[in-house]
Amino acid sequence: MKKLINDVETVLAEGLDGFAAAHADIVLLGAERQFVRRRNTRPGKVALISGGGSGHEPLHAGFVGHGMLDAACPGQVFTSPTPDQMLAAAQSVENGAGVLFLVKNYSGDMMNFQMAAEMLDQENATVIVNDDVAVENSTYTTGRRGVAGTLIVEKIVGAAAERGDGLAALKALGDSVNKATASMGVALTSCTVPAAGKPTFQIGIDEMELGVGIHGEPGRKRVKLTSADDIAAELTGAILRDLSLKPGQEVLLLVNGFGGTPLLELYVMVHAARKVLQGAGVRVARHLTGSYVTSLEMAGCSITVSAVDAGGLALWDAPVHTAALRWGM
Amino acid sequence: MKKLINDVETVLAEGLDGFAAAHADIVLLGAERQFVRRRNTRPGKVALISGGGSGHEPLHAGFVGHGMLDAACPGQVFTSPTPDQMLAAAQSVENGAGVLFLVKNYSGDMMNFQMAAEMLDQENATVIVNDDVAVENSTYTTGRRGVAGTLIVEKIVGAAAERGDGLAALKALGDSVNKATASMGVALTSCTVPAAGKPTFQIGIDEMELGVGIHGEPGRKRVKLTSADDIAAELTGAILRDLSLKPGQEVLLLVNGFGGTPLLELYVMVHAARKVLQGAGVRVARHLTGSYVTSLEMAGCSITVSAVDAGGLALWDAPVHTAALRWGM
Question: What's the CATH code, domain A11-179?
Answer without folding.
Answer: 3.40.50.10440
